[in-house]
Amino acid sequence: MPYIRESIITTVDKAGRVHIAPIGIIAKDDGWIIAPFRPSATLDNLSQVPFAVANYTDDARIFAGCLTGRKDWPTVPLDGFAVPRLEATLAHSVLEVVSIDDDAVRPRHFCRVVAEETHAPFTGFNRAKAAVLELAILVSRLGMLPPEKIDAEIAYLTIAIDKTAGPHEQEAWDWLMERVTDHLANAAAPGTEVRP
Ligand SMILES: Cc1cc2nc3c(=O)[nH]c(=O)nc-3n(C[C@H](O)[C@H](O)[C@H](O)COP(=O)(O)O)c2cc1C
């Protein structure tokens, strides 16, 4: 299995409008693959401006926020690049798309690393942040999972939240749980979510 780094990808369209999305970038040789599912704003933006910034942040609220309609996270311009970084990132890589494996479902964009910078120290692992990340992935796949599987995953992840969350992790968890609760309440209406 390839190594995957869960990051927040910033991209821009031709007009310079910024888009933010959680994307797992896939290690390949000295670079990274960005593989957005069709349709997506990240994919559209990469076809217009073939650069992205991979933001490495430990703020779980940004992952949860992007999946729950809270996409307005502050960004900071980068000298010499069209795409900004997140303000709340510990480090970032500027990625340039060098080739594309086109695909009807999930085109793979091979990127080289053009620049990298660190902004703040990594301050250690936290189980609640990891639990939020797992719940964010679960929320992006709600339509594909049976309710029993969703309940079982949440029961397990809740342990880490109850034992180790700070206020930010709790807030991020609550945003995502609102989505889960809505989904389970409407579970009788199939086909509302197709993201694998
Ligand atoms: C941790 C994490 C990793 C994700 N990785 C991917 C990915 O590799 N490709 C993708 O298309 N969506 C991925 N998603 C889902 C996207 O963030 C989400 O569907 C988003 O809306 C992408 O569409 P957009 O570019 O239009 O915003 C991921 C979500 C999470 C929480």
Radius of gyration: 17 Å
CATH class of the largest domain: Mainly Beta
Q: Kindly state the mean pLDDT as a whole number?
A: 95
**Distance between the first and last residues' Cα:** 18 Å
CATH homologous group name of the largest domain: Electron Transport, Fmn-binding Protein, Chain A
State the share of residues found in helices, binned by percent.
Answer: 25-40%
CATH names the topology of the largest domain as Pnp Oxidase, Chain A
Note down, in words, how this protein is organized.
The chain has 196 residues and is of the alpha+beta class. It folds into two domains: 4-118, Roll (Pnp Oxidase, Chain A); 127-185, no CATH class. The protein contains five helices and eight strands. The protein has helices at residues 41-48, 60-67, 127-140, 147-164, 167-185, and strands at 4-12, 18-28, 31-34, 51-56, 75-76, 85-86, 91-101, 108-118. The strands form two sheets. The chain has a six-stranded antiparallel barrel with strand order 1-2-3-8-7-4. The chain has a two-stranded antiparallel sheet with strand order 5-6. α2 (60-67) runs parallel beside α3 and α3 (127-140) packs antiparallel against α4. The model is unreliable at 192-196 (pLDDT under 50). The site of flavin mononucleotide has 19 residues, from β2, α1, α2 and α3.
